[in-house]
Amino acid sequence: MIRIILFTVFFAIVFFVAERYFVSSWVHPTWKVLLIFFFSVSFLTHRLVESGLQGDRERFVPLFMGATVARLILGLAFVGFFLFRHIEQRRTFILDFLVLYICYTGFEIWTLTRNLRRDS
Question: Lower CB density within 10 Å: C or N end of the chain?
Answer without folding.
Answer: C
